[in-house]
Amino acid sequence: MNGRPISGASVGARTRNGKGALALVLGVLLLLVTACGGGGDSDSGSGGDKDKGKDSSQADTKVSQAVVTIAPKDGADAVKTSGALKVTAAKGKLTEVKVEDTKGNPVEGKITGGGASWTPAAHLAASTKYKVHAVAKDSEGREAAEESAFTTLTPKNTFVGIFTPEDGSKVGVGMPFSVRFTRGITHPEDIEKAIKIKTEPAVDVEGHWFGNDRLDFRPEEYWKSGTKVTVTLNLDGVEGRPGVYGEQAKTVKFTIGRSQVSTVDVKTKKMTVKRDGKVIKTIPVTTGKAGYETWNGQMVISERLRVTRMNGETVGYGGEYDIKDVPDAMRLSNSGTFIHGNYWGGDAFGNYNASHGCIGLRDQRGGGDRGAPAAWFFDRSIVGDVVIVKNSNDRIIDPDNGLNGWNMSWEKWTA
Predict the structure, then answer these.
(1) How far apart are the C-alpha atoms of 142 and 230, rounded to whole Å?
(2) Is 367 helix (H, G, I), strand (E, B) or coil?
């Protein structure tokens, strides 16, 4: 009973005295709002938060319009090492492209077309997984990013390049960098791009193909003494011919030693040895007799043999000679031309030409006398030294017969 009159009075009071009750309710609500707001200037703080919330909401809904596309697609396998990788952007411009293998080795490339695309600067390695990260911005500066990972093919058929000189060598001023490929090359431009040569001091070095399996590099003139040469063979993944890929990635360094250029005059039967431009010795020689004349031209020492055996059958002369214990022999051509010690020549040296095309210097069998002319010359020569033959009745040696590309003009070499 007591509760009912109170309830009725309350309702009646709210009805009859609405203004007072409404003021009370508003006061309570204001107190609650103030408490929840934590105090302070409610007008400025509330208005600022509303404005910030509205801007943030609008920004979140404005995603970048740029679209990044990466080829090959994520997870692709057996991807070709050339021509398959490309990154493009639509409705925006590429600002960053990062490609690297699982070891962190980067793939160099260039953004082109005003930000429209990116392609690698060189081929990719075979049997290698790569990761791609690319970013583009739209006209409002908003970024869009894309990532992909793929693995290149594992070739069934491969080739390598067999090169000279060896890494760490010190060679003469005539030494080219020569590479022989184990398979004939039908894509020479791709091979050339994969071989980089750097020199200190800098000099222009150009390559020349002999057939489809040999590529030699040299400067226009003989190297300068002291030149340091670094060759990067990035053949891994290069498609040298359809379906045949390189499997070689190697850096080769060699240094050019002192200059030694020796000139053999067939008429006078003497050889003049020059070291750094100065004559250090003149040696009597014997060269090719009539019908077996020694080639003319610039020849480079490509091999040194302290003692060897010379058999005419190995160079197409049948059984005309078979000489054991030939001392101090150095190869000048692939066809069998040597400059070597001769212990059977009698008084031929400086007097008449008696060989089958080689250049003979007096020596002891087996080279035991290191003071003999041939031994003296051998001990002071290195691979890459130049031997020039002049005044012979034969023609100039072919540039690809040995390391003898110096017999080709620079114009033809670079053509």
Answers:
(1) 44
(2) helix
Looking up tokens 């200037």 gives 41
Task: Identify the three-state secondary structure at position 386.
Answer: strand
How many angstroms separate the CA atoms of 327 and 335, rounded? 19
Give me Rg for the CA atoms of the chain: 41
Cα–Cα dist 63/395, whole Å: 76
Sign of CA dihedral 229, 234, 235, 239: negative
Instruction: Kindly name the residue from 123, 208, 340, 356 that is annotated as catalytic.
Output: 340
State the catalytic residue, choosing from 123, 208, 356, 358: 358
Q: What is the pLDDT of residue 319?
A: 67
- Output phi, psi for 376, to 5 deg: -55, -45
- Which superfamily, per CATH, for 260-414? L,D-transpeptidase catalytic domain-like (2.40.440.10)
- The pLDDT tens digits for 383-404 are 999 999 999 999 999 999 999 9
Residues 6+ apart with CB under 8 A from 73: 148, 150
**Residue of 333, 327, 187, 175 whose CA lies nearest to 246:** 187
pLDDT of res. 322? 87
Strands (E), 155-224: 157-159, 161-164, 170-171, 177-181, 195-200, 206-209, 214-218
User: What number is the average pLDDT over the span 345-365?
Assistant: 97
Cα separations (Å) of 118 from 65, 79, 86, 152, 189?
Answer: 19, 17, 6, 18, 21
Cα separation, 377 vs 361, in Å, equals: 9
User: ∠ at Cα 352 (351, 354), nearest 5°?
Assistant: 140
**Would residue 340 show up in a list of annotated catalytic residues for this protein?**
yes
Q: Counting runs of H as helices and runs of E as strands, what totals does the chain give?
A: 6, 27
The reply to whether 157-256 shares the fold of 67-151 is yes
Q: Are 367 and 341 in contact (CB under 8 A)?
A: yes
Q: Is 133 a catalytic residue?
A: no
CATH 2.60.40.3710 assigned to 157-256: yes
Q: What is the pLDDT of residues 181-200, one digit of tens each?
A: 999 999 999 999 999 999 99
